[in-house]
Specification:
It contains 19 helices and seven strands. With about 500 residues, it is α+β, with helices and mostly antiparallel strands.
């Protein structure tokens, strides 16, 4: 934003829209605007007065009131005045100052805005796939348009920007209308079902237009070279600077910022920036969401209507079926078919069937027994009592085997001992059980501060470890390398 005098000064030209006599002021300004559209720029006071009283609503309007209103509008800079001296025939007429009135530039734009606001509901918004096609064709011309003169480049630039602005305004207004409170209320009425299909088809045709064109536009914008774009921007800026303007000073920097900013907005809409999703993708998601919501509301309305259906004819048909029954037994069968069983009893079990055929009846299956258990929280199954079996002989036998195994292991370990010492560098091939005992002795000694420990049979030993030498211990299930260690028993320390 660039702060200027025009930006911070009050807009007195808009006072007539909210003044005390707003009805008179707005009607006068509308008369001026309608004549302005017919290229009749200057009006006399009498012309304004005649057009005012032509409407029955202003039958009591006075010429003095008209003069006061014109003077007030002139003070607010809505009207420009010039004294008419051509028809003056006397000094008295010159002193009365007969004026001609003309709308100011601000007032013309304000009236145009007011007209658009008044016709918003009449014009409405729409989703036009043709706009996307036109934007695609114009974007595809970028490589060729750069070599044309500035007049053709400016015409192409105006067409592209106008289509892009219309696309933005139309889709935003249309989506806003679909998401409004009034639309939500309308979607809950039965009348909504009448044009639901047409609305969905309209939205889907727009989505197809998005799918066909957005990808092409995105790819074209990504492939554009910066030098070519700068060349186009320069020609657009040169054309804007060549237009003579009164009471308006535009610098090259201002126009260039506007042009580059518009292109960047278009690029972000179709391509996206900094890894964010582009606006076209968001529009695609929003449109799909509206279609889902419309379908959901339509389904809910259909179900609601179905629930309120009159079942009188259905009940009459059922009554006729019962009247045709010959006896009570047949009536019971008919009742079971129409209403179901009165007291059904379901039994579930993991039974093994002889066949998987669905055509085999229940009575053709073999019978089987099912144990029924009460379905209460306090139910507990009875436990079977059993006597304690005497296993003294088995325990004695197990203890004897353990002792024999331990003696055998100690015998083998004693065979490894030489001169009251077990040197791991001189050990033969070890069994896994013997290896585990020796490693346990090493672990017990390492946990002690002085590297000493006691075996299961009460012998004390001490561990000596070499920091520089290593040795390889061979076992039945593999070999492993370790620092050279010795276990020296207490009587040899």
């Amino acid at each position: 934003m660039q702060v200027s005098d025009k930006l911070i000064k009050p807009l007195t030209e808009a006072k007539y829209l909210n003044a005390d006599n707003v009805s008179r002021y707005r009607c006068i300004m509308r008369i001026f605007f309608e004549n302005y559209e017919k290229l009749r720029y200057w009006l006399y006071q009498e012309d304004v007065y005649e057009q005012m009283i032509a409407d029955p609503f202003w039958a009591d309007y006075k010429i003095e009131q008209c003069q006061q209103d014109l003077a007030m509008l002139t003070e607010w800079k809505n009207l420009n005045t010039i004294q008419d001296t051509k028809k003056v025939s006397s000094i008295e007429e010159f002193k009365n100052k007969k004026y001609r009135y003309q709308m100011s530039e601000y007032s013309v734009e304000i009236e145009r805005l007011v007209l658009r606001l008044e016709n918003l509901l009449v014009e409405g918004a729409s989703l036009e796939p043709t706009l996307l096609e036109r934007i695609r064709r114009n974007v595809e011309k970028i490589p060729d348009i750069a070599v044309h003169d500035k007049d053709e480049v400016h015409t192409w630039w105006d067409d592209l920007n106008n289509d892009f602005v219309r696309l933005n305004q139309n889709y935003q207004d249309y989506i806003r209308d679909l998401n409004s409170v009034k639309s939500e209320e309308m979607m809950h009425t039965k009348e909504f079902l009448v044009f639901k299909d047409r609305l969905i088809e309209y939205l889907r045709s727009f989505i197809k237009g998005l799918q066909r064109n957005v990808g092409v536009i995105e790819e074209c914008l990504r492939q554009q070279e910066e030098n070519r774009l700068n060349q186009i921007f320069d020609k657009v800026v040169e054309y804007e600077l060549s237009i003579p303007r009164m009471d308006t000073v535009l610098t090259r920097q201002m126009i260039e910022q506007n042009v580059v900013g518009r292109y960047q907005s278009m690029y972000d809409w179709f391509v996206g920036s900094e890894g964010q999703e582009n606006e076209a993708g968001k529009l695609f998601d929003v449109t799909n969401d509206i279609i889902r919501r419309i379908t959901r509301y339509a389904a809910a309305l259909s179900e609601k209507n179905a629930l309120g259906a009159n079942r009188k004819e259905e009940y009459k048909k059922v009554a006729e079926l019962f009247m045709r029954c010959e006896d009570l037994s047949q009536a019971h069968k008919m009742s079971a078919m129409v209403f179901g069983m009165e007291k059904p009893f379901h039994v579930s079990a993991d039974s093994i069937r002889e066949t998987d055929s669905i055509n085999k009846g229940v009575y053709e299956e073999k019978p089987f027994c099912i144990d029924l258990k009460p379905r209460v929280r306090t139910y507990r199954e009875k436990t079977k009592r059993s006597s304690i079996v005497e296993a003294r002989e088995k325990k004695i036998e197990t203890r004897r085997k353990i002792i024999e195994r331990q003696k055998e292991e100690m015998r083998k370990i004693n065979e490894l001992e030489k001169d009251g010492m077990i040197d791991f560098a001189e050990l033969p091939v070890l069994e896994p059980g013997i290896r585990e005992i020796l490693l346990k002795w090493i672990s017990d000694a390492l946990e002690s501060a002085d590297f000493s420990a006691r075996t299961d049979d009460g012998r004390t030993y001490k561990l000596y470890k070499s920091d520089s030498e290593t040795c390889v211990v061979h076992c039945d299930d593999g070999n492993f390398t370790m620092p050279r260690m010795r276990l020296v028993f207490d009587e040899n320390v």
